[in-house]
Write a structure and sequence with these properties.
Length: 550
């Protein structure tokens, strides 16, 4: 149990003692949260539990705070104070933080990884149509989704990541027809380009690769046969390209789920259940979901009057499949343009007899790229949307991932390309990685000087304010993991490790390590090691590398 958990447990115990003594009425205890005050004079931790429970216990917040403090065990606390309208501020004993720091070092690279909580979670993200390259919007979803998966795993969840491949339907037909048209054009034949075809340069490249490999072998084939063949060739190539781009971006999936596997049986089965539950009806030859019964603004077509399923039909069958796999929580990361789609999918889930509250849909806001202060609208290379591969080529995987993750998913992101490439303290990625590399350099210098790092030391020698601040920041890491995971907020880990790097740089600039008394040097090396482990752990969550040299 870390120090935050100890304080929270003590608050719960104090509440229960007051209830048992009849001072507080019987009631459900609200969730207890600890915060690190913005100014150190307000203590190491603070809670607003007294104000949260004022209505529950029918008592003034200050009176609640007083009664709680009376029942608390102060052995690990220097003092506890009431501030403002009822905040409770906790001040830890200095020897407690030294003991905690020693435990941090013992845990090594595992510090920050919480125990398995037994909760099974599925995270589905990216799931872009395999009809062209990933663009920067997909990149934000990929970075956020993979970081969320890493964060949930660190917080003790059992997580499975999934990519839903939209490999059925009209968009794949249009892909095949587009490749076919480019194939004919490249061979000097006239071709009618499909009205809803894909005009990207990658389609020309796919057609050219077919020609490079097979020449005009398919030229005299009937159009429908050639298009059918190109459908499989193009789909295979596009999926391979997606996997390659994602792998270069440190994104890997446990499951690649094909939409094709849902047709026709799974879609038919889902529709039969909806009809049986009277959640679907027929009108004008089509089958409609009664989504208005579940809060949607209108009912939605599931099966068209020609018998062809809509996209919603496949999504209904897909989510039925997800629920049947036994996850405790489902998380979908969708683009902001899918906002109106959430209600109808949840309506279908409830209509199938499942609990739609198990599904959390996180909406991804837009990304705008800036270079030299100017909005970048198009790729210089293709004249079309900037692809994820082009972004990685320009700024690197580490910078791209960090910049995508460092803001909350529900806020629009202005991505400064110049800042992402700069080697300066203003670039948060460089600043964090430099802190890590600096620590590695310290240990290399010690080895070169013949100074042995011995491990255990007298940590009570760490009394400088920068040392204490750094220790306390390190000790708050597990609680940050827990809170960030609960809120699906990997950006908090990005902010945390940036603040940790700042605390380390402050410590390094003030406190010498080489050239001081051996006992003090050993103590400071312990602090360096703990800092290095936490930075590495946090960067692992973000999918960003931790270079030993820069």
């Amino acid at each position: 149990m870390n120090i935050q958990e100890l304080v929270i447990a003590e608050i719960k115990k104090a509440v229960k003692k007051n209830i048992d003594a009849g001072i507080f009425p019987q009631a459900e205890i609200p969730a207890i949260k600890l915060e690190v005050p913005p100014q150190k004079e307000y203590g190491d931790f603070a809670t607003n539990i007294a104000m949260q429970s004022a209505r529950i216990f029918h008592m003034a917040p200050k009176k609640i705070a007083e009664e709680l403090i009376k029942q608390m065990d102060h052995d690990y606390l220097a003092k506890v104070e009431i501030a403002g309208p009822g905040f409770i501020n906790f001040y830890l004993r200095s020897d407690i933080i030294y003991k905690e720091l020693a435990d941090v070092v013992k845990k090594g690279n595992h510090y920050g990884t919480l125990t398995d909580n037994g909760i099974k979670v599925q995270v589905e993200y990216v799931s872009a149509n395999p009809t062209g390259p990933l663009h920067v919007g997909h990149g934000r979803g990929a970075a956020f989704g993979s970081a969320l998966v890493n964060l949930l795993k660190a917080a003790g969840y059992q997580v499975e990541s999934e990519y839903y491949i939209n490999d059925a339907g009209k968009q794949i037909d249009n892909l095949a027809a587009s490749v076919n048209a480019r194939y004919l054009e490249l061979l000097g034949k006239k071709a009618d380009f499909p009205e809803n075809g894909y005009h990207g340069h990658d389609i020309i490249e796919t057609a050219q690769r077919i020609i490079d490999k097979f020449g005009d072998k398919y030229l005299n084939m009937a159009d429908d046969e050639r298009i059918s063949l190109f459908k499989e060739v193009a789909l295979k190539e596009k999926l391979a390209a997606l996997r390659e781009d994602l792998s270069a971006f440190n994104v890997h999936f446990d499951v690649w789920f094909s939409e094709r596997t849902l047709h026709p049986d799974a879609v038919k089965s889902a529709c039969e259940i909806l009809l049986k539950n009277k959640a679907m009806y027929e009108k004008d030859g089509a089958k409609w979901l009664r989504s208005t019964d579940y809060g949607d603004d209108k009912d939605r077509v599931v099966i068209r009057d020609n018998g062809v399923p809509t996209y919603l039909a496949a999504d209904i069958a897909y989510h039925k499949n997800k629920y049947e796999r036994g996850f405790d929580k489902l998380i979908n990361i969708w683009g902001a343009d899918h906002h109106g789609y959430v209600c109808r999918v949840k309506a279908a889930i409830d209509a199938l007899g499942f609990d739609s509250s198990k599904l959390e849909v996180l909406l991804l806001q837009m990304v705008s790229l800036y270079r030299n202060g100017e909005l970048v609208k198009m790729s210089k290379r293709t004249g079309q949307s900037v692809t994820l591969a082009e972004l990685i080529e320009e700024v690197g995987t580490d910078a791209a991932r960090y910049f995508f993750i460092m803001r909350s998913l529900d806020s629009q992101l202005d991505f400064d390309l110049d800042l992402a490439k700069s080697e300066s303290n203003e670039n948060p990625v460089y600043y964090i990685q430099y802190a890590y590399a600096r620590i590695c350099s310290i240990f290399r210098q010690l080895a070169e000087a013949g100074i042995v790092y011995e491990g255990p030391a007298n940590l009570e020698l760490l009394t400088d304010e920068t040392e204490i601040a750094l220790i306390k920041k390190i000790l708050s890491y597990p609680d940050e993991i827990r809170s960030a995971a609960k809120d699906y907020a990997p950006h908090r880990i990005a902010n945390f490790v940036h603040e940790l790097a700042a605390d380390f740089h402050s410590f390094y600039n003030k406190c010498r390590i080489i050239g001081v008394d051996a006992p003090l040097a050993q103590s400071r090396l312990i602090l360096c090691e703990a800092t290095r482990n936490v930075i590495h752990h946090a960067l692992d969550i973000l999918g960003v590398s931790a270079p030993e040299k820069m």
